[in-house]
Design a protein that fits this description.
This protein is of the alpha+beta class. The chain has two domains: 211 residues, no CATH class; 102 residues, Sandwich (Immunoglobulin-like). Helix content is 53%, strand content 16%. The protein is built from ten helices and nine strands. The two termini are 23 Å apart. About 2% of the residues have low confidence.
Length: 315
């Protein structure tokens, strides 16, 4: 999850703990029970998705690389022996078919590596009766075939893991949007007891604030990441316009400008911030070469930092 999502999750959990302590008050709020059930259920789903997302999937790639190294070692050994035999018997065609260097095999695509190793195995197997004096045995060829099979099975796994990671990232975005929506409905219900339960009301909304240390007096913080890798996207352009079409003066990096002219770019870690942004509804268009443009609506409230978390999908 992103830093923003982690902060939101901490806020959600804090609100669940708080609201559970005041069931006598919340029981008087119409439809609160249904909203709260959805809210707590979503938080559980978010926590489950986070655990899946944080699982160590690098091991899949590490395992595949180990199998690749083993395959190359076995294939090169047989390749050199068959090439030596081809040289002695003056079989130039066979020599050209099996004469690969370790670099040739290391730096080719996985599917090409498969085909080359399979060809080495086939030529060794075809000429096995003549290769005994060159150290090529049935056992050696069987070991190469086993290595090819193991590598074939491992090839699609990193792709599948990346696909799974993308699905979890998309699932989290949907869950956070749904949770924010239902929590907004709970906010409205809590407004009903502002005058009768002022301490409860104040604590509830204090808990609703998302705390990110080091970002005081910031109106908006944006984070842009790659949807597939979740890595920060540097140099993404974000252009704001006011949703109602009205021009609003604001200060960006100490200079007064208008919302319709704001154009920011993300830094190395995919972030940028805007200070002193007037309260209101804005439209933001996010673009970066190689990615699909994305348009989002964002609301800014007085005295609070708005978090804008964007995941860009590659073209």
């Amino acid at each position: 999850m992103t830093t923003i999502q982690e902060s939101k999750l901490s806020m959600y959990i804090g609100e669940i703990t708080f609201l559970n302590q005041y069931s006598a008050i919340t029981a008087t709020l119409p439809n609160f029970s249904a909203y709260f059930t959805t809210f707590t259920g979503n938080v559980t789903l978010i926590q489950t998705a986070r655990l899946a997302q944080e699982a160590d999937k690098k091991g899949v790639t590490v395992n595949k690389n180990m199998l690749k190294a083993d395959l190359i070692a076995k294939a090169i050994d047989i390749s050199h022996r068959v090439a030596a035999y081809a040289t002695v018997v003056n079989n130039q065609k066979l020599f050209s078919e099996v004469n690969y260097t370790e670099t040739d095999l290391k730096h080719c695509a996985d599917t090409i590596l498969h085909d080359r190793c399979k060809l080495i195995w086939d030529r060794g197997n075809t000429n096995v009766s003549s290769l005994a004096t060159y150290g090529v045995t049935a056992a050696l060829l069987t070991a190469l075939q086993t290595a090819i099979t193991a590598f074939d099975a491992a090839m699609p796994q990193p792709v599948n893991e990346r696909s799974s990671k993308k699905q979890i990232t998309e699932q989290l975005a949907v869950l956070f949007a749904s949770t924010d929506s239902v929590l907004g409905k709970i906010d409205i219900l809590v407004e009903m007891v502002k005058s009768t339960q002022p301490a409860f009301y104040e604590t509830y909304f204090n808990n609703r604030k998302i705390g990110l240390p080091g970002f005081r007096n910031i109106a908006l913080k944006c984070t842009v990441t790659d949807m597939n890798s979740e890595e920060p996207v540097k140099g993404a352009s974000v252009k704001f316009s006011v949703a109602d079409g009205q021009m609003k003066a604001l200060v960006v990096n100490g200079k007064t400008t208008t919302a319709t002219k704001i154009a920011k770019k993300t830094a190395d870690k995919g972030h940028f911030v805007v200070k002193h942004m007037p309260a209101g509804n804005y439209q933001a268009v996010i673009s970066k070469p190689g990615y699909k443009d994305q348009q989002v609506n964002v609301s800014v409230a007085d005295g609070e930092m708005t978090l804008m978390d964007i995941s860009l999908d590659r073209l």
